[in-house]
Amino acid sequence: MFDPRAEAMSLDERAALQRHRLWGLVDRLLAADGVQGGRLKEAGVGGGSDVTLAGLRDLPFTTKQDLWDNYPFGLLNVPRDQVAAVHGSSGTRGRPTLVAYTRADLDLWAAMCARSLSCAGASPGSVVHNAYGYGLFTGGIGIHQGAVALGATVVPMSGGMTGRQIRMLTDLDADILTCTPAYALRLGEAAAEAGADLSSLKAGLFGAEPWSEELRTAIEAVLPIKAMDIYGLSEIIGPGVATECLEQDGLHVNEDHFIVEAVDPASGEPVPDGIPGELVFTTPTKQALPLLRYRTGDIAALARGECPCGRTLVRMSKVLGRADDMLVVRGVNVYPSEVERVLLGSGLVRPHYQLVVDRRGPSARLLVACEALTGNPTDALVRDLHESLGLTAEVFVLPGGAVPRVEIGKAVRVVTWEDGGPPLPGLS
Ligand code: DLL
To answer: Which catalytic reaction applies to this protein (predicted)?
Structure first.
């Protein structure tokens, strides 16, 4: 439940708490004398009390490369037998990332996910239909533990078997739905096809992949809910790092446990509030894998000031993209999220799309596969995309249902044809 002592404390109180916890972290890293401790020593830090919150910006970063270089347990900050669980990301875009948790870390994670669920409108007694994948991925088990900690009833569906999901949603009168935004759309579509009544649903917590305001509108059109954004990453803890409240005006970062900065991705220097930058997190209370200034690659802007919901936690915008998601097509920088905004903002197509970058020929092509609501929107979309991206994309309007729907895992928004292909029927 909303805990005013933690979520609505005065900024001075919170800063004092963060400083105290940061000192503890620095002392623990120095004592473990591992990679991060060594870097702190090199930076001239001899103990926690040498560090201030304002001086955090001068401390060394940690990166995904550090996790890979020290895979699987090289960055562990506790004895190996204190590791209660491991999670991570599957590494579809590279090598797997593995994250260790002590029992205390698991308790913290559950508390943060309970906070997120409550922030988005869940309460003890809620029925949480959890369609995030269970397993190494943090979505399923993280939300599950949070729902249990909140005192809700969790329905551990995992992804896939959409017909059965619809059945359970209606039979159990779930009020909270948790899954990826792409799967929420799929569930909405399937419920309409089945004529199912999902009116017990009130709110959804959707995350694990980028989604635009336009996609929010599309989800709220097919499901009778408020669609809230939940953000997190395995390296920091999983889901539960930040969540929107019912105001839907930025995600409250649980900054008493995850200190956040936004930096210029090129220079690493802090950017002012309101300016998009790469999110950098420090985890002062985590035990097994505490991270100092971890560079996420996720781009978002920070905003301070009290929210009408009463929380004083700093807010982050929706993730605008990832530093490494940018496509370069014929020299033009294209963010998939921008294409999503144009497509869905046009009101001409269904909220399902896929981008194909064809790099087989001498000059790269950007293909956009979508499904029309009515008529043939090709010319209008080519024009809108050109106006917004400065690039001529080739728009393919496929028959309804032909753009792949994701049932399990994260949506695949971009495919690249190097020599093989074509992965999507109807495109050439
Ligand atoms: O996706 C944790 C999670 C599970 C968050 C369920 C929310 C809900 P990873 O698999 O490690 O962890 O992937 C983390 O996914 O760095 C972002 O690029 C992206 N991501 C996560 N949440 C959001 C979001 C989980 N709300 C990576 N908006 C992150 C945009 C998100 N991108």
So the answer is: 2-phenylacetate + ATP + CoA = phenylacetyl-CoA + AMP + diphosphate
